[in-house]
Amino acid sequence: MNLIQFVDVKNVLIKLQDIFQNNLNNSQRAYVIGFLLSLPTLICYALNINDLSKGFYVLLVGVLIYGSVMDLLAIHKLIWNTTLGKALLTLAFFALTTFSYAISETVVNGIVQYDATALSHTVKLMTVATVPILALLIFIAILMLYVLLLFVLHMTYYMVGHDLFPKLFKTESYPLFTLFIRFFVYMFLLSVLTTNFDDTSNRYTKFVESNAKSFIHNFEAKTYSRCQLAEGQKAITVNDDEIIISEKEENGNITFTPQLCEPKLKSNP
Protein backbone atom coordinates (compact mmCIF):
# COMPACT_ATOMS: atom_id res chain seq x y z
CA MET A 1 0.00 0.00 0.00
CA ASN A 2 1.56 3.31 -1.06
CA LEU A 3 1.31 6.58 0.86
CA ILE A 4 -1.57 7.96 -1.23
CA GLN A 5 -3.69 4.85 -0.64
CA PHE A 6 -2.92 5.01 3.09
CA VAL A 7 -3.99 8.67 3.25
CA ASP A 8 -7.22 7.85 1.36
CA VAL A 9 -8.07 5.03 3.77
CA LYS A 10 -7.28 7.27 6.73
CA ASN A 11 -9.55 10.03 5.39
CA VAL A 12 -12.38 7.55 4.83
CA LEU A 13 -12.04 6.24 8.38
CA ILE A 14 -12.03 9.78 9.78
CA LYS A 15 -15.15 10.60 7.77
CA LEU A 16 -16.92 7.44 8.96
CA GLN A 17 -15.98 8.24 12.55
CA ASP A 18 -17.37 11.76 12.15
CA ILE A 19 -20.65 10.37 10.73
CA PHE A 20 -20.88 7.83 13.57
CA GLN A 21 -20.34 10.44 16.26
CA ASN A 22 -22.25 13.43 14.88
CA ASN A 23 -24.87 12.21 12.37
CA LEU A 24 -26.30 9.10 14.02
CA ASN A 25 -28.61 8.85 17.02
CA ASN A 26 -28.25 6.24 19.77
CA SER A 27 -30.33 3.55 18.06
CA GLN A 28 -28.53 4.00 14.74
CA ARG A 29 -25.17 3.68 16.48
CA ALA A 30 -26.39 0.50 18.16
CA TYR A 31 -27.39 -0.96 14.79
CA VAL A 32 -23.96 -0.14 13.33
CA ILE A 33 -22.23 -1.80 16.31
CA GLY A 34 -24.60 -4.76 15.93
CA PHE A 35 -23.57 -5.15 12.29
CA LEU A 36 -19.89 -5.06 13.27
CA LEU A 37 -20.50 -7.68 15.99
CA SER A 38 -22.24 -9.97 13.52
CA LEU A 39 -18.96 -10.41 11.60
CA PRO A 40 -16.93 -12.07 14.42
CA THR A 41 -20.07 -13.99 15.44
CA LEU A 42 -20.34 -15.59 12.00
CA ILE A 43 -16.59 -16.13 11.69
CA CYS A 44 -16.35 -17.88 15.08
CA TYR A 45 -19.43 -19.97 14.25
CA ALA A 46 -17.90 -21.03 10.92
CA LEU A 47 -14.67 -21.99 12.68
CA ASN A 48 -16.59 -23.96 15.37
CA ILE A 49 -15.32 -21.69 18.16
CA ASN A 50 -18.64 -22.13 19.96
CA ASP A 51 -17.96 -20.37 23.27
CA LEU A 52 -16.63 -17.24 21.57
CA SER A 53 -19.41 -17.35 18.99
CA LYS A 54 -22.06 -17.52 21.75
CA GLY A 55 -20.41 -14.63 23.57
CA PHE A 56 -20.47 -12.42 20.48
CA TYR A 57 -24.05 -13.55 19.76
CA VAL A 58 -25.31 -12.57 23.22
CA LEU A 59 -23.52 -9.23 22.93
CA LEU A 60 -25.04 -8.72 19.45
CA VAL A 61 -28.58 -9.39 20.69
CA GLY A 62 -28.05 -7.12 23.70
CA VAL A 63 -26.84 -4.23 21.52
CA LEU A 64 -29.77 -4.62 19.10
CA ILE A 65 -32.25 -4.72 21.99
CA TYR A 66 -30.67 -1.52 23.32
CA GLY A 67 -31.14 0.13 19.92
CA SER A 68 -34.77 -1.00 19.77
CA VAL A 69 -35.44 0.31 23.28
CA MET A 70 -33.98 3.67 22.24
CA ASP A 71 -36.47 3.71 19.36
CA LEU A 72 -39.34 2.98 21.74
CA LEU A 73 -38.21 5.71 24.13
CA ALA A 74 -38.14 8.19 21.25
CA ILE A 75 -41.69 7.20 20.29
CA HIS A 76 -42.74 7.39 23.96
CA LYS A 77 -41.33 10.92 24.20
CA LEU A 78 -43.17 11.93 21.03
CA ILE A 79 -46.47 10.55 22.34
CA TRP A 80 -45.98 11.96 25.84
CA ASN A 81 -45.59 15.49 24.43
CA THR A 82 -49.27 15.46 23.42
CA THR A 83 -52.21 15.77 25.80
CA LEU A 84 -53.98 12.75 24.32
CA GLY A 85 -50.75 10.76 24.43
CA LYS A 86 -50.25 11.50 28.13
CA ALA A 87 -53.80 10.39 28.87
CA LEU A 88 -53.41 7.14 26.90
CA LEU A 89 -50.03 6.29 28.41
CA THR A 90 -51.29 6.99 31.94
CA LEU A 91 -54.32 4.79 31.31
CA ALA A 92 -52.11 2.03 29.89
CA PHE A 93 -49.79 2.23 32.93
CA PHE A 94 -52.77 2.02 35.30
CA ALA A 95 -54.18 -0.98 33.42
CA LEU A 96 -50.83 -2.81 33.40
CA THR A 97 -50.30 -2.14 37.12
CA THR A 98 -53.73 -3.51 37.95
CA PHE A 99 -53.18 -6.53 35.70
CA SER A 100 -49.77 -7.21 37.25
CA TYR A 101 -51.23 -7.00 40.77
CA ALA A 102 -54.03 -9.42 39.83
CA ILE A 103 -51.51 -11.89 38.38
CA SER A 104 -49.43 -11.66 41.56
CA GLU A 105 -52.42 -12.44 43.78
CA THR A 106 -53.19 -15.48 41.62
CA VAL A 107 -49.57 -16.70 41.78
CA VAL A 108 -49.35 -16.30 45.58
CA ASN A 109 -52.70 -18.06 45.95
CA GLY A 110 -51.30 -20.95 43.89
CA ILE A 111 -48.17 -21.12 46.04
CA VAL A 112 -49.98 -21.49 49.38
CA GLN A 113 -53.06 -23.10 47.77
CA TYR A 114 -55.34 -21.29 50.21
CA ASP A 115 -56.69 -17.81 50.90
CA ALA A 116 -53.66 -15.51 50.50
CA THR A 117 -55.32 -12.25 51.60
CA ALA A 118 -52.95 -11.93 54.57
CA LEU A 119 -49.86 -12.13 52.35
CA SER A 120 -50.01 -8.53 51.12
CA HIS A 121 -46.24 -7.98 51.27
CA THR A 122 -45.59 -11.06 49.13
CA VAL A 123 -48.20 -9.94 46.59
CA LYS A 124 -46.47 -6.56 46.31
CA LEU A 125 -43.09 -8.24 45.90
CA MET A 126 -44.50 -10.52 43.21
CA THR A 127 -45.99 -7.50 41.44
CA VAL A 128 -42.49 -6.10 41.07
CA ALA A 129 -41.16 -9.52 40.04
CA THR A 130 -43.69 -9.81 37.19
CA VAL A 131 -42.46 -6.57 35.60
CA PRO A 132 -39.61 -8.18 33.54
CA ILE A 133 -41.94 -10.78 31.97
CA LEU A 134 -44.65 -8.20 31.23
CA ALA A 135 -42.05 -5.81 29.80
CA LEU A 136 -40.71 -8.58 27.56
CA LEU A 137 -44.23 -9.46 26.38
CA ILE A 138 -44.99 -5.81 25.61
CA PHE A 139 -41.66 -5.45 23.80
CA ILE A 140 -42.40 -8.52 21.65
CA ALA A 141 -45.94 -7.27 20.95
CA ILE A 142 -44.65 -3.86 19.81
CA LEU A 143 -42.02 -5.44 17.56
CA MET A 144 -44.64 -7.75 16.07
CA LEU A 145 -47.06 -4.85 15.53
CA TYR A 146 -44.35 -2.84 13.79
CA VAL A 147 -43.28 -5.71 11.57
CA LEU A 148 -46.84 -6.72 10.61
CA LEU A 149 -48.49 -3.32 10.28
CA LEU A 150 -46.58 -0.21 11.20
CA PHE A 151 -43.72 -0.79 8.76
CA VAL A 152 -46.15 -0.60 5.82
CA LEU A 153 -47.80 2.54 7.21
CA HIS A 154 -44.42 4.02 8.09
CA MET A 155 -43.13 3.39 4.58
CA THR A 156 -46.29 4.81 2.98
CA TYR A 157 -46.12 7.96 5.05
CA TYR A 158 -42.44 8.39 4.26
CA MET A 159 -42.98 8.00 0.51
CA VAL A 160 -46.12 10.13 0.09
CA GLY A 161 -46.86 11.99 3.27
CA HIS A 162 -43.76 12.58 5.36
CA ASP A 163 -44.32 16.35 5.29
CA LEU A 164 -47.39 15.74 7.44
CA PHE A 165 -45.24 14.17 10.17
CA PRO A 166 -42.09 16.31 10.38
CA LYS A 167 -41.37 15.42 14.02
CA LEU A 168 -41.36 11.72 13.24
CA PHE A 169 -39.30 11.76 10.03
CA LYS A 170 -36.91 14.68 10.34
CA THR A 171 -35.22 13.84 13.62
CA GLU A 172 -32.55 11.50 12.27
CA SER A 173 -30.16 11.18 9.35
CA TYR A 174 -30.65 8.54 6.65
CA PRO A 175 -34.31 7.85 7.63
CA LEU A 176 -35.21 5.61 4.68
CA PHE A 177 -32.14 3.40 5.05
CA THR A 178 -32.68 3.23 8.82
CA LEU A 179 -36.31 2.25 8.22
CA PHE A 180 -35.27 -0.90 6.37
CA ILE A 181 -32.54 -1.64 8.92
CA ARG A 182 -35.12 -1.44 11.72
CA PHE A 183 -37.43 -3.80 9.88
CA PHE A 184 -34.76 -6.51 9.59
CA VAL A 185 -33.46 -5.90 13.14
CA TYR A 186 -36.98 -6.24 14.57
CA MET A 187 -37.57 -9.40 12.54
CA PHE A 188 -34.33 -10.85 13.91
CA LEU A 189 -35.18 -9.90 17.51
CA LEU A 190 -38.69 -11.34 17.15
CA SER A 191 -37.21 -14.63 16.00
CA VAL A 192 -34.72 -14.72 18.90
CA LEU A 193 -37.16 -13.66 21.62
CA THR A 194 -40.09 -15.85 20.60
CA THR A 195 -37.83 -18.89 20.18
CA ASN A 196 -36.39 -18.55 23.68
CA PHE A 197 -39.43 -17.08 25.47
CA ASP A 198 -40.98 -20.31 26.80
CA ASP A 199 -37.74 -21.65 28.27
CA THR A 200 -36.73 -18.28 29.73
CA SER A 201 -40.16 -17.56 31.23
CA ASN A 202 -40.38 -21.06 32.77
CA ARG A 203 -36.99 -20.74 34.44
CA TYR A 204 -37.78 -17.22 35.63
CA THR A 205 -41.17 -18.34 36.99
CA LYS A 206 -39.55 -21.18 38.98
CA PHE A 207 -36.94 -18.75 40.32
CA VAL A 208 -39.60 -16.23 41.38
CA GLU A 209 -41.87 -18.85 42.98
CA SER A 210 -38.95 -20.37 44.90
CA ASN A 211 -37.96 -16.96 46.28
CA ALA A 212 -41.61 -16.12 47.03
CA LYS A 213 -41.85 -19.27 49.17
CA SER A 214 -38.71 -18.25 51.05
CA PHE A 215 -40.03 -14.72 51.54
CA ILE A 216 -43.35 -16.00 52.90
CA HIS A 217 -41.64 -18.44 55.27
CA ASN A 218 -38.99 -16.02 56.52
CA PHE A 219 -40.93 -12.75 56.69
CA GLU A 220 -44.70 -13.26 56.43
CA ALA A 221 -45.05 -16.36 58.61
CA LYS A 222 -44.68 -15.79 62.36
CA THR A 223 -42.64 -17.96 64.69
CA TYR A 224 -44.78 -17.02 67.68
CA SER A 225 -48.52 -17.33 67.23
CA ARG A 226 -51.59 -17.44 69.46
CA CYS A 227 -52.20 -20.88 67.92
CA GLN A 228 -50.34 -24.00 68.95
CA LEU A 229 -47.43 -24.90 66.66
CA ALA A 230 -45.09 -27.85 66.46
CA GLU A 231 -41.33 -27.34 66.53
CA GLY A 232 -40.08 -25.74 63.28
CA GLN A 233 -43.53 -24.56 62.23
CA LYS A 234 -44.57 -20.98 61.57
CA ALA A 235 -48.07 -19.56 61.26
CA ILE A 236 -49.79 -17.24 58.79
CA THR A 237 -53.03 -15.91 60.23
CA VAL A 238 -55.96 -16.10 57.81
CA ASN A 239 -58.72 -15.18 60.29
CA ASP A 240 -59.65 -15.85 63.93
CA ASP A 241 -60.22 -19.56 63.27
CA GLU A 242 -57.85 -20.46 60.42
CA ILE A 243 -54.09 -20.35 59.91
CA ILE A 244 -51.63 -21.58 57.31
CA ILE A 245 -48.72 -23.63 58.65
CA SER A 246 -45.40 -22.85 56.96
CA GLU A 247 -42.78 -25.55 57.42
CA LYS A 248 -39.32 -26.11 55.95
CA GLU A 249 -38.52 -29.73 55.21
CA GLU A 250 -35.11 -31.38 55.51
CA ASN A 251 -34.54 -31.15 51.77
CA GLY A 252 -35.12 -27.38 51.91
CA ASN A 253 -38.58 -27.48 50.34
CA ILE A 254 -41.13 -25.19 52.00
CA THR A 255 -44.72 -26.42 52.42
CA PHE A 256 -47.90 -24.57 53.35
CA THR A 257 -50.77 -26.38 55.07
CA PRO A 258 -54.06 -24.76 56.13
CA GLN A 259 -55.52 -25.84 59.43
CA LEU A 260 -57.85 -24.68 62.19
CA CYS A 261 -56.27 -22.65 64.95
CA GLU A 262 -55.98 -24.40 68.30
CA PRO A 263 -55.45 -21.52 70.76
CA LYS A 264 -52.63 -21.69 73.27
CA LEU A 265 -54.85 -19.92 75.77
CA LYS A 266 -58.17 -21.53 76.55
CA SER A 267 -61.00 -20.10 78.63
CA ASN A 268 -61.91 -21.90 81.83
CA PRO A 269 -65.03 -24.09 81.55
Number of strands: 3
Helix-strand pattern: HHHHHHHHEEE
Helix count from the secondary structure assignment: 8
User: What is the C-alpha radius of gyration, as a whole number of Å?
Assistant: 28 Å
Oligomerization category of the chains in this entry = single chain
The averaged pLDDT comes out at 84
Observed structural traits:
mainly alpha, 71% helix, 7% strand
Task: Summarize this entry quickly.
With 269 residues, the chain is mainly alpha-helical. The protein is 71% helix and 7% strand.
Describe the secondary-structure layout:
Layout: H1 3-22, H2 26-46, H3 50-80, H4 83-112, H5 120-129, H6 131-160, H7 166-169, H8 175-220, E1 233-237, E2 242-248, E3 254-260
Antiparallel strand pairs: 1-2, 2-3
Helix pairs in contact: 2-3, 3-8, 4-5, 5-8, 6-8
3D architecture notes:
The model has no long low-confidence stretch (mean pLDDT 84). 16% of the residues are buried. With 269 residues, this protein is mainly alpha-helical. The chain contains 8 helices and 3 strands. Helix 2 runs antiparallel to helix 3 and helix 6 packs antiparallel against helix 8 (175-220). It has helices spanning 3-22, 26-46, 50-80, 83-112, 120-129, 131-160, 166-169, 175-220; strands spanning 233-237, 242-248, 254-260. The chain folds into 3 domains: 25-81; 82-220, no CATH class; 224-269, no CATH class.
